[in-house]
Design brief:
The complex is a heterodimer of chains A (121) and B (240). In chain A, 33% of the residues are buried. Chain A has helices spanning 11-23, 34-43, 60-68, 90-93, 111-120; strands at residues 3-7, 27-31, 48-51, 78-82, 98-103. Chain A is 38% helix and 21% strand. By secondary structure, chain A is of the alpha/beta class. Chain B has a 5-stranded mixed sheet with strand order 2-4-5-7-6. A two-stranded antiparallel sheet of chain B has the order 1-3. The longest helix of chain B is centred in the N-terminal third of the chain and has 38 residues, at 3-40. In chain B, helix 2 crosses helix 6 (200-211) and helix 3 runs parallel beside helix 4. Chain B folds into 2 domains: 3-73, Helix Hairpins, CATH 1.10.287; 83-239, Histidine kinase-like ATPase, C-terminal domain (Heat Shock Protein 90). Classes of the chains: A alpha/beta (121), B alpha+beta (240). Chain A binds chain B through residues 10, 12-13, 16, 19-20, 83, 86-87, 104-109, and chain B through 23, 26-27, 29-31, 33-35, 37-38, 41, 60, 63, 66-67, 70-71, 74.
């Protein structure tokens, strides 16, 4: 089963996204911030990481730097799921392993499972 | 520091505060929309579905405004591309997107077709935001059961193309509009003839139009108003 690590600090949105991803048949672990995401990745390497940008504490970019600095994690595809989508350019972020940007303010319920499928192709 | 410098600092401070507020509002609004979408996908009655759709559409309207606010604050720093655009096609795309919102309010939105398409020079994203903004304004000031019309005209003498959004609602006072235009560039102002409007949407639309060397304006009718944006016609017009 495809294993997705969801990094989202809003508990209600996280609950909703976990439900949608599980309904789509994925195994999901939730991390509310970057340090807990690192622990979760050490525990079991995800096939895909879905990452909010403005997290409590350090931002997603600190985590992206961390992931890129290790040979075993720098190939994990990243999906940014953020309210800042209109400020970000996918081309600029590809070197950080970011493969898709999903705009939280316009996304539909099935957009996250669709994004996971697309980065695993 | 002179008076103008202080005014500019105050203006910048206001813009920064608005942008910060807009960004803070975006997360809860996006969450409300997602929760409503989740509810809507469940087993609910028709009345509940209608109410939930209204929550979704209202959240989307508020999200558009917050997004426009954050975009307007970045105008001075950002480089954006302009390109020849067929405004009629863009209007049709917007009509498709806003149709559920207009339908939910008992109104409709249509584009007046031109047999000879016009092209103008604009940034697609900014022009889209202006037209969305005017459409949203028209939705809330038109009478139930009426249609809002998008109209595209060539202004031959000035070499501009005008995209207008015509609504059928309360008349707009021309005096108030003149006052509004004077102040529009400095801060959001109330259009008193339309008391529920803060003028914020028009202020943002004005900034977007200016960034593309265009302008916005309004025409008063007995039974409503046309809000329009004027932008440079594309030279490719001569090829048509």
């Amino acid at each position: 089963m495809t294993y997705v690590l969801l990094v989202e600090d809003d508990p209600w949105l996280a609950e909703l996204e976990v439900g949608v991803l599980k309904d789509a048949g994925y195994e999901v672990t939730l991390s509310p911030h970057a340090p807990s995401a690192i622990i979760a990745i050490d525990d079991k390497q995800p096939d895909v990481i879905i990452l909010d940008v403005l997290l409590t504490g350090s931002t997603a970019f600190a985590l992206l730097h961390e992931l890129q600095s290790y040979g075993d994690t720098n190939t994990v595809p990243i999906i940014l799921c953020t309210n800042m989508a209109d400020s970000l350019k996918l081309e600029d972020l590809k070197t950080y392993g970011v493969r898709r940007i999903v705009d939280k303010s316009t996304m539909q319920l099935d957009d996250l499972p669709a994004a996971v499928r697309s980065v695993l192709l | 520091m002179g008076v103008n410098g202080e005014d500019n600092d105050m203006h910048q401070h206001e813009v920064s505060s608005l942008t910060a507020a807009a960004h803070e509002l975006k997360s809860p609004l996006a969450l409300m929309r997602q929760l409503a979408l989740r509810l809507e996908s469940g087993d609910i009655s028709d009345d509940q579905r209608r109410l939930i759709q209204q929550i979704t559409l209202t959240s989307e309207r508020a999200l558009r405004l917050t997004s426009d606010l954050t975009r307007s604050a970045r105008l001075e720093d950002a480089l954006f591309e302009v390109e020849p655009i067929n405004p009629e096609q863009l209007c049709r795309d917007i009509v498709d997107e806003l149709a559920p919102l207009f339908e939910a309010h008992g109104r409709s939105l249509a584009v007046t077709h031109r047999s000879h398409p016009l092209l103008l020079v604009a940034n697609r994203d900014l022009l889209r935001r202006i037209i969305m903004n005017f459409s949203d304004n028209a939705l809330h000031y038109s009478q139930p059961g009426t249609a809002v019309h998008m109209q595209i005209q060539a202004l031959t003498k000035s070499g501009m193309v005008r995209v207008g959004i015509r609504d059928y609602g309360p008349a707009l006072s021309s005096d108030m509009w003149r006052q509004l235009q004077k102040k529009l560039k400095h801060s959001p102002q109330t259009i008193h003839a339309r008391p529920q409007s803060s003028g914020l949407g028009l202020f943002i639309a004005s900034q977007f139009a200016e960034a593309m060397q265009g302008s916005i304006g309004a025409t008063r009718h007995r039974d409503g108003a046309t809000f329009y944006v004027e932008l440079q016609a594309s030279r490719q017009l001569s090829l048509l």
